[in-house]
Design a protein that fits this description.
Blueprint (H helix, E strand, L loop, with lengths): L9 H13 L5 H4 L9 E5 L8 H14 L4 E5 L5 H10 L6 E4 L4 H10 L2 E4 L9 H7 L4 E4 L4 H4 L5 E4 L4 H12 L2 H18 L2 H15 L1
Helix pairs in contact: 1-5, 3-8, 6-9
């Protein structure tokens, strides 16, 4: 389900174009499937609770928009902080660039992953976190916090890292990524390769089997 955009599939291309128009992020590059420098679409997925770090992400948006005024942010998730996040976005003067969506089907979520330019995962702590892997599988680089276990999945070859809870450092990482569209193309390729070579169910099963055999 989580895979890169297929431009040879007419229905999928139409869905991609519709999604980019919905978030006011439909420049020529983005509609053609190339990394956008003019209207980049940032995606954050996770429950709307404090530990997911969405407030940190919103606080980084003024610096991101100062350098990339056409950037747009879509946050997908359910939770009690929706009104708080919308209020904070308005207070920061970035309400025009922020969209918050509730739960959706896996098919629609997968389309968001493959249509975004960059996934931002600002969570304060995770057991592992599937969102970065789903993003990499979709061919979309990830910006996330520089602490384990997320650093086991994400490094500079497939995304960028920032200091947890630091809006300015988050903005630095996002802007550095947006400034390097060709680098994002390479990261997208390497990210998908990483998931397929290490994080499939088959690999997980083999690793568990190896542990049990070592105990025996």
């Amino acid at each position: 389900m989580f895979r890169p955009l297929n431009h040879d599939d007419e229905d999928e291309q139409l869905a991609h174009e519709k999604l980019r128009h919905e978030y006011d992020a439909a420049d020529e590059d983005s509609l053609s499937g190339r990394p956008s420098n003019t209207t980049p679409l940032l995606l954050a997925v996770g429950r709307l609770v404090a530990r997911k770090g969405h407030l940190t992400l919103l606080r980084s948006m003024p610096e991101i928009l100062a350098k990339h005024p056409g950037a747009r942010l879509c946050i997908i998730g359910r939770g009690h902080m929706r009104k708080t996040l919308l209020k904070q976005a308005k207070k920061l003067g970035v309400g025009h660039a922020v969209f918050i969506k509730g739960g959706m089907s896996f098919e629609n979520l997968a389309q968001h992953f493959r249509s975004a330019d960059l996934v931002v995962y600002p969570s304060y702590y995770e057991g592992q976190g599937l969102i970065p892997l789903e993003s990499l599988a979709s061919g979309t680089p990830v910006v996330t916090v520089n602490q384990a276990p997320l650093t086991e999945m994400i490094d500079e070859t497939v995304g960028r890292l920032f200091e947890c809870g630091n809006p300015s450092d988050l903005a630095r990482a996002v802007n550095a990524s947006l400034d390097d569209p060709e680098g994002r193309v390479k990261q997208a390729e390497l990210g998908r390769e990483r998931v397929l070579s290490k994080y499939t169910y088959e690999h997980n099963a083999a690793d568990y089997e190896m542990i049990y055999r070592s105990l025996l």
